[in-house]
From TrEMBL:
CDD domains: Pep_deformylase (cd00487)
Keywords, comma-separated and alphabetical: Hydrolase, Iron, Metal-binding, Protein biosynthesis
Listed EC numbers: 3.5.1.88
GO-annotated molecular function: metal ion binding; peptide deformylase activity
Stored InterPro entries: Peptide_deformylase
Protein name from the UniProt record: Peptide deformylase
Pfam families assigned to the protein according to its UniProt record, in alphabetical order: Pep_deformylase
Similarity-based family: Belongs to the polypeptide deformylase family.
């Protein structure tokens, strides 16, 4: 099932997600639906708050980066197979130099901005089988995980922008929350006027 993506302005995107256990209702189906929703939206990551669920669950699939000519052969090979489910994730550490990358978000369509993040992370999480994992990740894969992790902490990539950038984006963000944006995937807008 393909869920509508929750748009900027919905309070669920600002909630710190609750931990879940392996008895969470229909978890396998939810994870499958999240991947289906992410692919239908041409995304590389999706967090449960983006489909209206304030829980600590997100997924990533970095395989679209395997064709990026700017990356090394080794990086492309790693990203090709970097598909993960993160349940109850906890960031252990973020280290290394900060580097800039142009980020976007399915919940904030038509907005892309340069965001600085640390290069290397260590994260603890449960996989889809509730096996505990600790993984150290760097580069683009780390950035994708950091972006999705922020979602379960109630943080959006626009929060990381300068005050000037935020002011420049204010009306665009307001329009997104009202549904005044063109997207080629299903979305749910918090302030859109209902048609009668």
């Amino acid at each position: 099932m393909i869920y509508p993506i929750i748009a900027y302005g919905d309070p669920v995107l600002r909630v710190i997600g609750k931990e879940i256990d392996k008895d969470y209702p229909k978890l396998d189906a939810l994870i499958e639906d999240m991947f289906e929703t992410m692919y239908a939206s041409s995304g590389i990551g999706l967090a449960a708050p983006q489909i209206g669920l304030p829980i600590r669950l997100f997924i990533v699939d970095a395989s679209p980066f395997e064709d990026d000519e700017d990356l090394t052969e080794e990086e492309r090979a790693f990203l090709k197979d970097f598909k993960r489910v993160f349940i109850n994730a906890k960031m252990v550490e973020e280290i290394g130099d900060e580097w800039v990358f142009n980020e976007g978000c399915l919940s904030i369509p038509d907005v892309r901005e340069d965001v600085f993040r640390k290069d290397t992370i260590t994260i603890e999480y449960m996989d889809e089988n509730f096996k505990k994992k600790t993984e150290t990740i760097n580069g683009i894969a780390a950035r994708i995980v950091q972006h999705e992790y922020d979602h379960i902490e109630g943080i959006l990539f626009t929060d990381k922008l300068s005050a000037l950038k935020k002011r420049l984006l204010k009306s665009k963000l307001a329009n997104i929350s009202k549904g005044k944006v063109k997207v080629d995937y299903r979305m749910k807008f918090p302030l859109a006027k209902k048609k009668r």
